[in-house]
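Re: that chain you flagged

S.,

Sorry for the slow reply, it's been a week of failed gels. I finally had a moment to sit down with the sequence you sent. For the record, here it is as I used it:
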Amino acid sequence: MSHPMHLHGHSFQIVEINGTRIEGALRDTIMVPPKMTVTVALDTNSPGLWAFHCHNLYHLAAGMFSTMAYREIPQSN
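Prediction finished late last night. Pasting the structure tokens below so you have them in one place:
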């Protein structure tokens, strides 16, 4: 079954699907086909804790939910 995976607070570019490099459009949700991997690139310009989950509500309710967190690292002079 495919999963529409959604990342809150960010747009990302798909750069690889199942090991094949591509130049994808910017988006905040990607349909991940069964038994495949997707690699994305994003700017980390909004520090904090962000939700990452499947948009199929019954999958979300069953626990297909994670978070992404990062913090700003001060630049030294």
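What I noticed first: Residues 49 and 69 are 4 Å apart (CA to CA).

Talk soon,
D.
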